[in-house]
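Troubleshooting: if your tokenizer reports a length mismatch, compare your output against this known-good record of 186 residues.
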Amino acid sequence: MSRFRVVGKSVPKIDGLGLVTGEGKFAADYSLPGMLWGKILRSPVPHARIVSINTSKAAQLPGVRAVVTGQDTLKRPYGQFEGTAWSGADMYALAVDKVRFVGEEVAAVAAVDELTAEKALDLIEVEYEELPFVLGIEEAMRDAAPLVTRRLAATLCTGSTTPTGTSTPGSHGPTTFVRTGSPPSR
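Known-good structure output:
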């Protein structure tokens, strides 16, 4: 007789029937008293300095409970390769001072319902000073290519090589050190 009731045994999924019949509940299906909707304002530009963010109109919208930006956070970076020589701790919960890719999180809103949260996002005014950016590995390898982060002395890119010898950006191939050197003094 086995001393385990679950380990090594086939165990039916408790919510399996509900999920396959469309009757299952997911987190978004629940509503409790006092729950708020959260929405994120994302950068429309690939690389820019954040000149200013005005959240006053969004904060005054009835039903909005909070509006936060990177300046409201602890500004503690996180990232990949923590504790190594190539520590990539250069990301923030919300962008601080600059954005480095389209879609980077710039501000967050909490409101009583989804529509109000979306309206609040539309009321946030962000002024960007666009900075140079690159769109491909070959551009990133050039000496004059802009560094995306000052925390690393190298621009990293992931990709793999196809049979034709061209790189496939974003694939889960090996990490390639594209360009090394000291961060610019700007």
